[in-house]
Amino acid sequence: VIGLRFSDIEVAAANAAWAVLEGGVTRDSAIQAAEAATRVAEEAMAQVRQDAGIDAELKRIACAQGCSSCCHQVVAVTVAEAERIARFIAALPQPDRQAFHQRAKAAWAKGSGLDPAGWWQARIPCAALDPDGGCIIHPVRGLACRGYNSLDAEWCRQSLAGSAQAAPVMTAQLRIHAHAQMGLAKALARAGIHQPMGALAATLAALADQDK
Ligand code: SF4
User: Does residue 12 sit in helix, strand or coil?
Assistant: First the structure.
């Protein structure tokens, strides 16, 4: 990536998140920290578009509404991103929330204890996937999801079906978001959070348990 090091993105995200968290970790500050780290990733993507001229590659992104093969894998999420997602879900209409919670419990019941390869082989859909293949938390999805786009949807379908290896993702986008998430996790750890990162599916199942 021209003029932009991934380690710089990690530091920038950590600093942006820490600027919010140093006053104390609350639900609000955690959400603001997640938003700040996301902005860093978005700004880095904008800079890469300008400096490295990857628009042609971005136009080749094959992801579209209803295509959701990649949403059957283990996804990492920080506690700050989880708070952002939790607040969004809490504001959903009750029937949508209930359906989501049922999916979250079913996914965790099937997949807890599986390693990432086993989860993928079991083809367990993310609880945030609605029946039409859309992401119901799309506006607040975490950095791992924001960084993941494929250049070949058929390859993704074959991979989920078990006949192909890893999907051809856009590496720069993936790494920018991964480093921003790592920066956010570091800021959370600095603020005293012992386990700043976990699995999205576990988070969603815990939310389902809390919302009696
Ligand atoms: S949160 Fe949304 S984008 Fe991420 S894996 Fe789940 S359904 Fe897919």
Answer: helix
pLDDT in tens, 144-163: 999 998 888 888 888 888 87
Phi, psi values for residue 146, rounded to 5°: -65, -30
Report whether 100 contacts 89 (CB < 8 A).
yes
Q: DSSP string spanning 35-94?
A: HHHHHHHHHHHHHHHHHH--HHHHHT----TT--GGGGS--EEEHHHHHHHHHHHHTS-H
Give the C-alpha separation, 48 to 54, whole Å: 7
**Overall pTM surpassing 0.90 (yes/no):** yes
Residue nearest to atom 2 of ligand 1 (CA): 135
DSSP category for residue 139: G
Q: How far is the CA of 200 from the centre of ligand 1 (A)?
A: 9
Q: Give distance in angstroms: CA of 128 to centre of ligand 1.
A: 6
Per residue in 15-53, pLDDT tens?
999 999 999 999 999 999 999 999 999 999 998 887 776
Region of residue 129 (left: phi > 0; alpha: psi -120 to 50; beta: else): beta
Q: Are 61 and 170 in contact (CB under 8 A)?
A: yes
